[in-house]
């Protein structure tokens, strides 16, 4: 009997506030979609940094027969030259302990084939065309100029690249987008919170006489609040499900089908990160429903 009453009360509340409920669903849908996107943006930046930014700061590419660097003179780097280059790198006070990683032509070619396994360009490149290199991790990434100056003019060195000069603008832009998305999502979540509060307030005000009678006959606070709570939770869950679906569709078509296929050099967010983000989104949606409902209906529970 009580369950029938609660469900009946829920149906009446949804009919009375249908337009407001739809507005709440749409607001939660949009805000949680943007919030989930910001969470994935943060994960994406962390993945990119994990692959490149925090591991390798300087790449020293060695000469091949076709290299045009000033230390090459049209000849392949010799073993003696490689040993000298490695000695200079390791003896630098800026090089981190165990911070020198050598990459052979075979390793470079294997990595190239892995990154471009589905591209026709693989068939046009041979292992002999790859460059050997040293990848150097620094104690202080800001102090890269000393090592670059020491290595750049050595015989056998083609080019020296500091990857941070290329990655810093990218990560700054990504971090800016991430902050912007979080701010926008936060504002929309506040809007959703206020909209839920207004919807519950209107519903409670319209039924204040019924609530007063229920309090006089001894109904508990939770029993009186339950229909309002279910109404808010239902709207929040519908909005959260739509937001989660939007996020999954976006990740599949934008990231997995396009970005991951086009930019193979990066590691991209996938199902694991998306699933984690959707769980957080559902929890946030439920909090948005439960907290304002309890706070808003409290004033109508006093006889």
TrEMBL record:
Gene3D superfamilies, sorted: 3.30.70.3040
Database matches in InterPro entries: ABC3_permease_C, FtsX, FtsX_actino, FtsX_ECD
BP-aspect Gene Ontology terms: cell division
Domain named FtsX extracellular: residues: 56-160
Gene Ontology CC terms: plasma membrane
Segments crossing the lipid bilayer: 21-41, 179-205, 226-255, 275-295
Alphabetical UniProt keywords: Cell cycle, Cell division, Cell membrane, Membrane, Transmembrane, Transmembrane helix
Membrane topology: Multi-pass membrane protein
Cell location: Cell membrane
ABC3 transporter permease C-terminal domain boundaries: 183-302
Classification via Pfam families: FtsX (PF02687), FtsX_ECD (PF18075)
Function in brief: Part of the ABC transporter FtsEX involved in cellular division.
Oligomer status and interactors: Forms a membrane-associated complex with FtsE.
Membership in a protein family: Belongs to the ABC-4 integral membrane protein family. FtsX subfamily.
Protein name in UniProt: Cell division protein FtsX
């Amino acid at each position: 009997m009580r369950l029938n009453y609660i469900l009946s009360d829920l149906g009446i509340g949804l009919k009375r506030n249908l337009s407001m409920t739809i507005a709440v669903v749409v607001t939660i849908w949009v805000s949680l979609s943007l919030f989930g996107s910001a969470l994935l943006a943060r994960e994406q930046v962390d993945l990119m940094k994990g692959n490149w930014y925090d591991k390798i700061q300087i790449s020293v590419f060695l000469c091949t027969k076709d290299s045009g660097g000033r230390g090459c003179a049209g000849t392949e780097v010799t073993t003696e030259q490689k040993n000298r280059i490695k000695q200079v790198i390791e003896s630098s006070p800026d090089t981190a302990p165990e911070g020198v990683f050598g990459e052979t032509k075979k390793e470079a070619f294997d990595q190239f084939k892995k990154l471009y396994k589905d591209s026709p360009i693989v068939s046009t490149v041979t292992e002999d065309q790859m460059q050997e290199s040293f990848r150097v991790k620094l104690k202080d990434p800001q102090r890269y100029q000393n090592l670059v100056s020491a290595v750049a003019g050595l015989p056998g060195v083609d080019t020296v690249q500091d990857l941070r000069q290329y990655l810093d603008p990218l990560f700054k832009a990504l971090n800016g987008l991430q902050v912007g998305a979080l701010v926008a999502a936060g504002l929309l979540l506040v809007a959703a919170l206020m909209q839920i509060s207004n919807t519950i307030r209107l519903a409670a005000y319209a039924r204040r006489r019924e609530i007063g009678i229920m309090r006089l006959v001894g109904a508990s606070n939770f029993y009186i609040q339950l229909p309002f709570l279910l109404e808010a939770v239902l709207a929040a869950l519908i909005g959260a499900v739509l937001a989660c679906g939007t996020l999954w569709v976006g990740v599949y078509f934008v990231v997995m089908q396009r970005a991951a296929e086009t930019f193979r050099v990066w590691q991209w967010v996938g199902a694991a990160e998306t699933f984690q983000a959707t769980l957080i989104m559902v929890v946030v949606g439920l909090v948005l429903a439960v907290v304002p409902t309890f706070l808003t209906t409290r004033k109508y529970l006093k006889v």
